[in-house]
Amino acid sequence: MRLIQITDTHLSRGKPHFADNWAPLARWIGEQRPDLVIHTGDVTVDGAGVEDDLAYAAGLLRDLGVRWLAVPGNHDVGDAGHPRQPVDAARLARWHAHLGPDRWIEDLAGAKGWRLIGLDAMLLGSGLAEEAAQEAWLDAAMAEAQGRPVAWFLHRPLYLDSPEEADTGYWSVQPRPRARLMALVRRHRVGLVASGHLHKASQTVGHGTRFVWAPASSFLVGAMQPAMPGEKRLGAVLYEFDEAGVSAEIAEVPGLSQHWLDDVIAEVYPRPSAGSR
Ligand SMILES: [Fe+2]
Ligand SMILES: [Fe+2]
């Protein structure tokens, strides 16, 4: 079973700064003939603020002509505790309307086929009722996997350097929800945890779990990003799942333009002026 993970496309009709990278990505996906595409979030430039970004990006995904699933990123549904764009029921409803569920289960064929689980990382630490609902849902999804190997897909990585690290703020899951998720990863020997968000690529294996940071297809982040592991490159990830395991290849996608967020941030993500919220 061949799966492609794409992430951080940052698409928008109104802000087409990274739009030129969609066509080469779509062409490459077509050539690879995957059985499924998973988008791990930041589908849009600002779906959290502009509903048309969600509608536009969903249309492009549908035009791929390949089955796809997506989980939201901070720019799609807002973020836990964000001062201007907190994740909330209205933002989640807009995601559901355009891109489908924000958490899902996909069981691959066969009794020992992989169970792929998509998680909404934006709920983690939000205190919303949906966060508790997702916790209970995930506990049940893991318990009911019944011998199937499990892979998780979520926007934010669980950690940057180590599962025991302190709060990294914007960049990884907060320590409290992280501890809970890592306990599940270890108890159930989760085979793969695949994330996006960092616009960096990395693949590591620890305690039998493969952690993959998928490269964005939109842009890289320069000096604005603190030092952390991973490689600043654009691309996608090609997976082959079978009963023996999973292989992951961080792939080059021909024709991507190497945009840097630092060059255009004032236009793409302007800071609100003082006094305005
Ligand atoms: Fe992103
Ligand atoms: Fe993100």
Q: Would you mind describing this structure in some detail?
A:
- The longest helix has 15 residues, at 129-143.
- Helix 2 (51-63) links the parallel strand 2 (36-39) and strand 3 (68-70).
- Helices cover 27% and strands 20% of the residues.
- The mean pLDDT is 96.
- The radius of gyration is 18 Å and the shape is globular.
- It has 277 residues and is of the alpha/beta class.
- One fe (ii) ion (FE2) is lined by residues 42, 73-75, 155, 197.
Which ligands are bound?
fe (ii) ion
Strand tally is 13
Strand content: 15-25%
> What is the string of helix and strand elements?
EHEHEHHEEHEHEEEEEEEH
Give me the side-by-side strand order of the main sheet.
4-5-6-7-9-8
Distance between the termini: 47 Å
Mean pLDDT: 96
* Helical content class: 25-40%
Number of helices: 7
Structural class: alpha/beta
Low-confidence stretches: none
Instruction: Tell me the Rg in angstroms.
Output: 18 Å
Gross morphology: globular
Biggest β-sheet strands, sense, barrel: 6 strands, mixed
